[in-house]
């Protein structure tokens, strides 16, 4: 069985994180991933503290294993979610879409392992100086908010820039991706899109069906004009947004155009006005499975590939 430094640090069986997908990664999914040996992560997204507290309670009722909380720093509720994380003493906090520096002292004082998502070497170095426990190097193949660099390029450079454990994310959905991540220097992986197919993932059936039918060219990136690019499935909404983005629509109207689009996709399966976040790995997701089975399958797929590589080196 593949184990690494991140397993020992967090007390998990497999070096697999579940991505913090807003309105998707709830307490039930996080608990299922943690029970399967990985690190389940509840996504705060743009939700208020009461919702997040409820999801933490749900997860803790379903598992005694470590649980993480992802805080999207662009959220209007970021300050109160940051305080909640310290009050609840969650095992791990992951962060995205911003710099968590002003919160890290309180989190570390609460005994929380802080693992920011980084999309550049500069951010990796900054988070290392601020006392992060590990880093998630996320390439632009991922779903949701994305950076410019690909996973293949980003991960080895982040590994070279820090002594912290590095988790690779973006475009990883099977054992081959896990093996590649380890060969690039990572000691674990984060998967988001693959867990959209988990039986415990509560997205609308239409959303799940779109993921299972996706192809290699099924995603697109929008939002670059506003400085917050997002990868999602090619749908009527994403195409309409792209036309508006480059058609001269004022910024405030463009922001209003996208408001609530993810929630409509997750909860209603709205193919007209919903934004179906997805990474490029969607074309590799072919069936619904329990979260524990997904973790076991990807890790068992990676092990012989890594063994073969090491034998070849010898």
Please write out the topology:
Elements: H1 5-10, E1 16-18, H2 27-35, E2 40-43, H3 49-62, E3 67-72, H4 78-88, E4 92-96, H5 101-109, E5 113-118, H6 121-129, E6 135-138, E7 144-145, H7 151-161, E8 166-169, H8 175-183, E9 188-191, H9 205-212, E10 219-222, E11 230-233, H10 236-245, H11 251-258, H12 261-268, H13 291-313
Parallel strand pairs: 1-9, 2-3, 3-4, 4-5, 5-6, 6-8, 8-9
Antiparallel strand pairs: 7-11, 10-11
Structure, explained:
With 314 residues, this protein is of the alpha/beta class. Helix content is 43%, strand content 15%. An 8-stranded parallel beta sheet has the order 1-9-8-6-5-4-3-2. Helix 2 (27-35) packs parallel to helix 3 and helix 3 (49-62) runs parallel beside helix 4 (78-88). The protein is globular.
Over the alpha carbons, how many angstroms does the gyration radius reach? Answer: 18 Å
Structural class, please? alpha/beta
Strand content is: 5-15%
Order of helices and strands: HEHEHEHEHEHEEHEHEHEEHHHH
Strands side by side in the biggest sheet: 1-9-8-6-5-4-3-2
What integer is the average pLDDT?
93
Tell the overall outline.
globular
Number of DSSP strand runs: 11
Describe the sheet with the most strands.
8 strands, parallel
**Separation, N- and C-terminal Cα atoms:** 20 Å
Helicity level: 40-55%
Low-confidence stretches: none
| Number of helical elements | 13
Question: Can you describe this structure in just a few lines?
Answer:
This protein is α/β, with parallel strands linked by helices and 314 residues long. It has helices spanning 5-10, 27-35, 49-62, 78-88, 101-109, 121-129, 151-161, 175-183, 205-212, 236-245, 251-258, 261-268, 291-313; strands spanning 16-18, 40-43, 67-72, 92-96, 113-118, 135-138, 144-145, 166-169, 188-191, 219-222, 230-233. Helix 3 (49-62) packs parallel to helix 4 (78-88), helix 4 runs parallel beside helix 5 (101-109) and helix 8 packs across helix 13 (291-313).
């Amino acid at each position: 069985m593949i184990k690494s430094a991140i397993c020992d640090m967090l007390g998990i069986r497999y070096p697999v994180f579940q991505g913090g997908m807003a309105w998707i990664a709830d307490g039930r999914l996080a608990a299922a991933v943690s029970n399967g040996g990985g690190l389940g992560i509840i996504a705060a997204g743009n939700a208020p503290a009461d919702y997040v507290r409820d999801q933490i309670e749900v997860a803790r009722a379903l598992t005694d294993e470590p649980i993480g909380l992802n805080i999207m720093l662009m959220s209007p509720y970021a300050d109160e979610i940051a305080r909640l994380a310290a009050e609840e003493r969650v095992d791990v906090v992951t962060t995205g879409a911003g710099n968590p520096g002003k919160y890290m002292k309180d989190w570390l004082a609460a005994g929380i392992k802080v693992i920011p998502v980084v999309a550049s070497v500069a951010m990796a170095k900054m988070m290392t100086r601020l006392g992060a426990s590990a880093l998630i190097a996320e390439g632009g193949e991922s779903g949701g908010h994305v950076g410019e660099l690909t996973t293949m390029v980003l991960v080895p450079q982040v590994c070279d820039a820090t002594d912290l454990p590095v988790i690779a994310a973006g475009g990883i959905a099977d054992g081959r991706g896990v093996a590649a991540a380890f060969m690039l220097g990572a000691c674990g992986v984060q998967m988001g899109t693959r867990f959209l197919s988990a039986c415990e993932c509560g997205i609308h059936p239409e959303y799940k069906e779109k993921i299972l039918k996706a192809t290699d060219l099924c995603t697109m990136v929008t939002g670059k004009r506003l400085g917050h690019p997002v990868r999602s499935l090619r749908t009527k909404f994403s195409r309409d947004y792209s036309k508006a983005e480059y058609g001269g629509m004022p910024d405030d109207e463009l922001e209003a155009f996208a408001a609530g689009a993810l929630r409509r996709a997750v909860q209603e399966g709205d193919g007209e006005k919903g934004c179906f976040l997805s990474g490029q790995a969607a074309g590799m997701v072919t069936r619904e499975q329990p979260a524990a089975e997904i973790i076991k399958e990807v890790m068992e797929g990676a092990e012989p590939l890594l063994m073969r590589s090491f034998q070849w080196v010898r």
